[in-house]
Amino acid sequence: MTDGRLVLLTCSPRVAPGLLGPDAWDVLRSADQVWYGLVEHPQLPALHHAGVQAARLDDPPRALAQRLLDLAARGAVVVWLLDPAGDAALSTAITEALTLRAAAGTGTTPELELLAGSYDLPGAHLLDLVAVMDRLRSPGGCPWDAHQSHESLVRYLVEEAYELVEAIETGDRAHLREELGDVLLQVVFHARVAAEDPDEAFDVDDVADGIVTKLVSRHPHVFGSDATSGGESRTAEHVEATWDRLKTAEKGRTSVVDGIPPGLPALASAEKLLGRAARAGLDVPLPPTGAPTDAVGLGDTLLGVVAQARAAGVDPEAALRAAVRRHAARTRAVEPPPPDHAGTSDHPGSRSLGAGRRRHADPYDAERPSLG
Description:
Layout: E1 5-10, H1 22-30, E2 33-36, H2 44-49, E3 55-56, H3 61-73, E4 77-81, H4 88-104, E5 111-116, H5 126-137, H6 143-147, H7 150-170, H8 173-194, H9 204-218, H10 220-223, H11 236-251, H12 266-279, H13 295-311, H14 316-334
Helix pairs in contact: 3-4, 5-8, 7-8, 12-13
């Protein structure tokens, strides 16, 4: 008798039911038997519409594994529709059963195939985040999440952004991955809150559409008529100038000063102003500086330092943060150890400025405020 085949068919829960690859449809239509275990398996309506008959088995994993292998061993092509959430117990049971059959050397061992009927594209897990956020925000979800507004979430957005900066500048890859997720959560959270606005609602798809449209329009050298041209359109300087020009036209701005966020840290605000003026070809003299004796003189001196940093290609904010971290390490080096840590020490500079403190930027780590 010709050996049969057991096909374990996987389907991504993030892909619409029925959107299966040609290999999956071929094996489903030609199979001798198609089985499933999940009640109301999402692929069933599509199979029924395509004329593919499927039946349900609810055996325990080990018994089910033996049954499927026995059917395939008789020469049949047997398809098992895996649960979109995974069938770890069944997979383990099939592996164990095949191992025992091979060791015994008796009977027929059918061919086993794992076939991906549909699979995730890059970014597919963002759908999981959107679904989780929707569940938290919906009735019966989390009362803390449901209570939040754009205004109440601002502190977390700002703090998470700074924690992401810290992760980047300290080179902590695990921390970087975590903080990128925390910042992404803030975007999805705000979009979910915005979807509930009674007058001007928008959702996460609107947010994504907006940034895609902006990126395409601001990159004519990639997506537009300039895409096939070379020369200066391919230089970073020209691209940046084009971005500024298109942004100014879109926003209706009349000055390079327009649009600089007033909430930016002072050094970053100064660097952005100087950079915009330089890209616009404006020759704006800096105020004279000397030994500062008052706030105005000190401010002018700091502005001059930012200009020096720009000329040297240095981000003044990043440079100052690095200097603060180095000074924090020097401070720790001269501090006496705490009484409960006598005899232990940390290598100076081995921890970030905020090391040892409990992080409170993440609302899921922090003590949540009263809902009253």
